[in-house]
């Protein structure tokens, strides 16, 4: 079920909300939590009910192992072996569905074998609920004693606002909220703020992200080499599409949870304002960055090892982060690019070299924009073709009015039809949106800042209504969120 659908907004969310608080008003708290769990499972099964047993099996298996680790009564060696088994089982499940065909295809290519691919359908949200439960196992291994009921644990994993694409939450931050009696009463402040955030998220997705998707899909979808400006408009369109798509999802997730008086962690903090790559990753997909830091980078030694090992750790973490997003060489390259940039920034810091603020921002933004090409392109061939277009290697076409001012130019520069390979109606509106989007991400307050100063008054009510009306009116077609594919 999509957040940006009439089914979710008009039926599922209001009905789940009404039943949950009705049961709590009757003091049937356990039944209310059970109903919320069933609603979350229904939300998941709506996509493909055949994948529901995989989710349920993962929940039960990790719960049983986590309960065993939480006892802390066995020998350290047995507990460590149990933890390693649990991590291996979770990663094995993820690898089977997400990477088996990728490995077979590459084995066939490099070894000239003819193994048949499995053609497995990727279970929705498997990357997210796998990381969620690995974190749970590691936490109870480090600090035994925290034990929950199966009902509480199942709701922690399946709670529908965060189930599909995050934010990635910790059990110690979420499960206690479900048992807090004060959170089982209707809170009008949270209703107002939650609806406001849902409205913002819908507007980001339906109005902004889906508009940029028209150009991004057209540019990345063509096999014709793009000219200079076509390639740049395409790459920038995807850069803003991804930002508003994923941050919009996070806003709706946080807003939906707030309706139930549940607080989810923020996942974005104006990442395109970052002035270095480290700052970018402290702002972009914050919960994933924290997970990779706490459960991979630090256990590998972090920055407590020598400089060579530190750089190797950084690159490895980002390589695995790229592979987590998708089974493909483009995702691997994207991860290596970001890992290399982070390693270079660490060396830059140690050299204590300064850079003008605007230049630092420009370099960071353009690096992120170029790296997103590998994130979006279907294969390496298309990614390289896009990079060539951005470098002018596929030809340069400039508006005709510039011809008198260009005194020296190469033969491949032409004047007139600047967008020869992308249809005009696929590029005109997004092209006008680009400077507006840049101004929004750089100068406007983000959702976190707006939420921190939110007051339920006439102005906020009017803003919420406008956001919903405009978004609902524009929902002619329903498109998936980008991160649903991961």
Notable traits:
transferase, 486 residues, globular, MBOAT_fam, mainly alpha, Ac/AlaTfrase_AlgI/DltB, Acetyltransferase, 19 helices, two-stranded parallel ribbon
Q: With helices defined by DSSP (H or I, 4 residues minimum), what is the helix count?
A: 19
Q: Distance N terminus to C terminus?
A: 16 Å
Mean pLDDT: 90
Fraction of residues in H or I helices: 55-70%
What is the string of SSEs from the N terminus onward? HHHHHHHHHHHHHHHHEEHHH
**Class from secondary-structure proportions:** mainly alpha
Report the portion of residues in β strands.
under 5%
Shape: globular
| Unreliably modeled segments | none
Major sheet characteristics: 2 strands, parallel
E-strand count: 2
Enumerate the strands of the largest sheet in spatial order, edge to edge or round the barrel. 1-2
Radius of gyration: 24 Å
Q: What is this structure's SSE topology?
A:
Layout: H1 6-25, H2 29-45, H3 52-71, H4 76-111, H5 126-142, H6 150-158, H7 160-163, H8 171-178, H9 188-221, H10 228-259, H11 277-283, H12 286-297, H13 307-325, H14 329-351, H15 357-376, H16 380-390, E1 396-398, E2 413-415, H17 424-443, H18 447-452, H19 458-474
Parallel strand pairs: 1-2
Helix pairs in contact: 1-2, 2-6, 3-4, 3-5, 3-6, 4-5, 6-8, 9-10, 9-17, 9-19, 10-15, 10-16, 10-17, 12-13, 13-14, 14-15, 15-16
Describe this entry's structure for a reader:
The protein has helices spanning 6-25, 29-45, 52-71, 76-111, 126-142, 150-158, 160-163, 171-178, 188-221, 228-259, 277-283, 286-297, 307-325, 329-351, 357-376, 380-390, 424-443, 447-452, 458-474; strands at residues 396-398, 413-415. It has a two-stranded parallel sheet. Among the domains are: 6-189, no CATH class; 277-377, no CATH class. The protein is built from 19 helices and 2 strands. The longest helix is centred in the first third of the chain and has 36 residues, at 76-111. The protein is mainly alpha-helical and 486 residues long. Keywords: Acyltransferase, Cell membrane, Membrane, Transferase, Transmembrane, Transmembrane helix. Pfam families: MBOAT.
